[in-house]
Amino acid sequence: RKEVEQDPGPFNVPEGATVAFNCTYSNSASQSFFWYRQDCRKEPKLLMSVYSSGNEDGRFTAQLNRASQYISLLIRDSKLSDSATYLCVVDNYNQGGKLIFGQGTELSVKP
Amino acid sequence: DTGVSQDPRHKITKRGQNVTFRCDPISEHNRLYWYRQTLGQGPEFLTYFQNEAQLEKSRLLSDRFSAERPKGSFSTLEIQRTEQGDSAMYLCASDRSTNEKLFFGSGTQLSVL
Q1: Does A61 touch chain B (CB under 8 A)?
Q2: Which of A6, A89, B69, B70 could be a cystine partner for B49, CB 3.0 to 4.6 Å?
Q3: Whole-number Å distance between alpha carbons of B99 and A34
Q4: A80 phi and psi, to 5 degrees?
């Protein structure tokens, strides 16, 4: 089983749509959770951290379910500029703390 | 520019040659990471340093790969006797500590012919 698994993509949605990405992780000791965004041929950049209580940043909402070891990202009112690959990232807390990346889910927002 | 910088941006080499990449992290960051990314996959962890100490090396990394961070600042990643399967984007990243935002460099794209 992969340490971090994401929905297979790509997701093709029209502008204005709401889209949700799911992610599961295998290490129950993990403490830190993130969503990163990666544009084509660019480096990954932090989109948002994910907190136990859930958190929102504008059109983006992240949720964490520790019991199920599940993380989600919801994008509302999607824009053309949201087109990118979204990477679920989890720390390997009891094995050095390094960040483990999922394979990424590609999102394409169409006019 | 005070971000993470990597050099070179692109490297084309013939199979069997050795290559070396350099990464300069953000100056106050004491942790430095190397990741490898192939098309359609997320970044795959290779190794990381806290200051000059190499704390972990991925089991997936063969003995042909070696990384150093001699003075706790810049780091080098060397691949000896390159193989076509080594073709990938090699990403360097740095942060100050656990739970901090990870900053990536633009990467070095390696093509082994």
Answers
A1: no
A2: B69
A3: 9
A4: -55, -35
